[in-house]
Amino acid sequence: SHGHNIPSYEVFLSPDSGYTEGTLFCNQPIYQFGNIMKNVSLTFENGVVTQAHAETGNNALQKILQVKNFNKVGEFSFTDKRLSSITHPMAATLFDENLSGENGNIHIALGRSFVRSFTGSATTPISDLDSLGFNDCQEHIDFINTEDKKVTAISNDGQEIVIYEHGMFTFSLE
Fold first, then answer.
1. H or E segment and range at residue 126
2. CB–CB of 46/73 below 8 Å?
3. Is the entire prediction scored with pTM above 0.85?
4. 168-169 vs 140-145, strand pairing mode
5. Three-state DSSP class for 103?
6. Rg for the chain (alpha carbons), in Å?
C-alpha cells in the first residue's frame, strides 16, 4: 500500500465490492461515533451485506448500514503478526485495525474504497472507478477478526495458494 496510513502495519487493498461472499465474524470491539459494537457478524451475498448483527451496539450498526453504499466492502486487509506490536484494543481505529497478537488479523471495512490502491486512479474517471468495483461512500469503518485463520487465494489459472496462515503471510516479506 502507499499513501498515508498510520501506523501502517497492514497490507490492504480495495477489492471489487461486487464479489464479496460469506460471513465475517468481528471478534474485536469497534468504537465509532461514540458507540461500541461488539461481536459483529456480517453476511455478504453478491457483494452486499444481507445480514448484520452486533451482540452489543446493534442499533448503531443497523443505523450506519442505512448510509448509501455502506453495505459493501471498501477495504480488505491483513496484518502479519511479525509486523505489528499492537496487542490490545486501544479504542482508536488507526491502531485497532492493526491489532496483532498471536494470530495477526484480517479486517474489512464497509464503506469507502481506497481508490489510490488502483495504480490508474489519478487518470481514471470516477464513473469508470465505480464500474471497476470501487465503492463510493461517505463512511469507512473497519471490522476486525483476530482468530486463527488460513486464507487461500485462487490464481487466474485456478490454482489454490495458501497466502496467510497462523497470523503470517506464507511468503517472504522481503
1. helix 126-131
2. no
3. no
4. unpaired
5. helix
6. 16
